[in-house]
Specification:
It is built from three helices and 25 strands. It has helices at residues 9-12, 17-24, 62-65, and strands at residues 2-4, 25-26, 34-40, 46-51, 57-58, 74-80, 85-89, 92-96, 101-104, 111-115, 124-130, 138-141, 150-152, 158-161, 170-176, 187-193, 199-200, 205-206, 210-217, 225-231, 234-240, 244-248, 255-258, 263-270, 279-280. Strands 1-3-4-11-6-9-12-13 form an eight-stranded mixed β-sheet, with no helix packed on it. The longest helix has 8 residues, at 17-24.
């Protein structure tokens, strides 16, 4: 598990491109037969990628957590951006298809990941944060019929925003949030840009009460996303490629513009789960 420390906005304004990427960019998340984990001191979030091919991969706490098992004091959200896969939790097998998700509550001990077909392996993207209470473990599907242990994303949690004229026509699918899937502090969802649109989260904002991590994907090899961060009057950028993640502190804006449409997963952690609790930044005030 790689460790990343917290940073001050006063220091970040002096970072070089290389230093920005070292502190905030997470690369090589999905490596065959590996679990990649990055622990950030910012709200103690762990960002990870799991790519089983022919093997079953078990999630262990590691020395860094000083815990008996990974979710002894934590909760976790997982979204599969690859082929069909399986997550086994304390002996119960969940089939998790492309763009389906899971919330796994604190106290789950034995967690393993597998792919259904080695020729099209699953790619499990995870966010994990400290927890104080055990909420039910559930499989989350963007659409379908309700059944025991499965949550279908509510119609009101599929939000269409923006317009083609402003190059930000997008659809937000909220997976983990109060009123749908309960958690201690974790929220996760996915935003898909429509063809012809490239801007996400614009006008941009900050939210002092929670941080955020983005995973950008569905990006062709020759394309990229410019991820914007920093204080509104001291903006910085990081060039992002396919299936790379970026850590966004609570004091930082988080917005992006791609060379073409793309998809990204957002994960948030902090003291406030009110999705709309954000401080907007007028486009005219950006520098």
């Amino acid at each position: 598990m790689e460790l990343r420390t917290a940073v001050s906005p006063r220091d970040v304004k002096n970072y070089t491109t290389e230093r920005l990427r070292e502190e905030f960019l997470i690369q090589n998340l999905f490596m065959p037969e590996e679990i990649k984990l990055v622990y950030s001191h910012i709200d103690r979030i762990i960002t990870g990628g799991v790519m089983p091919v022919e093997q079953t991969l078990e999630l262990k706490a590691g020395e860094e957590l000083r815990a008996e098992y990974f979710l002894q004091r934590r909760e976790m959200g997982v979204i599969n951006i690859g082929g069909a896969g399986e997550i086994t939790i304390d002996g119960k097998v969940y089939e998790v298809a492309h763009k389906e998700a899971m919330y796994i509550g604190m106290g789950a001990r034995d967690i393993s990941f597998a792919s259904r077909e080695a020729s099209c392996p699953a790619k499990f993207y995870l966010n994990s944060v400290p927890a104080h209470h055990t909420y039910p473990t559930v499989l989350i599907k963007p659409e379908g019929e309700p059944e025991e242990g499965v949550v279908i994303v509510k119609k009101e949690n599929k939000v269409e925003l923006g317009c083609l004229e402003q190059s930000n026509h997008r659809t937000i699918c909220k997976y983990i949030l109060p009123g749908q899937v309960e958690s201690c502090q974790l929220e996760m969802g996915m935003t898909k840009l429509e063809p012809g649109s490239v801007w996400n989260t614009m006008p941009c904002h900050t939210h002092d009460r929670r941080m955020e991590v983005y995973l950008y994907f569905d990006i062709p090899e020759d394309a990229f996303v410019m991820h914007y961060m920093g204080e509104p009057t001291e903006t910085r950028h990081i060039v992002m490629r396919n299936e790379e993640a970026v850590i966004s502190p609570s004091w930082s804006i988080h917005a992006g513009s791609g060379s073409q449409a793309y998809t990204f997963i957002w994960g948030m952690a902090g003291e406030n789960q009110d999705f709309d609790d954000m401080d907007g930044v007028d486009n005219r005030d950006l520098r």
